[in-house]
Amino acid sequence: MLPLVNRLRKKSEIQNVFRQGKAVYSGFLALKFKPSSGTTVRFSFSIGHSYSKKAVDRNRLRRILRETVRENLNKLKKPADLVFFLIKPNRQSESLEKLQIEKQIAKRAIELMKKAEII
Fold it and tell me: Quick check: pTM over 0.70?
């Protein structure tokens, strides 16, 4: 579990990141980030109904993302606010099954943090 200081908890903070932040993409996963004046990196995870209508599946994906972030907290350099979210697949893009997404999610999360120059 992420420490409280590393969590974006307020709806207004998350909306602020979505409005003013920059985005990086890696396949089905995206990251919105905004440099912060604070001293820590804070995270939020948004997995919508487009991934699965079952809360069990969405929560599993959140847990995988949270664990990946927690394992890499010591590598993070810059204070920022980050929100991970899934991109709804279009018909033309490759439709990934849930198992494929779960296998790739950790690798893609690290890749996105590197693109955002947080790691």
Answer: yes
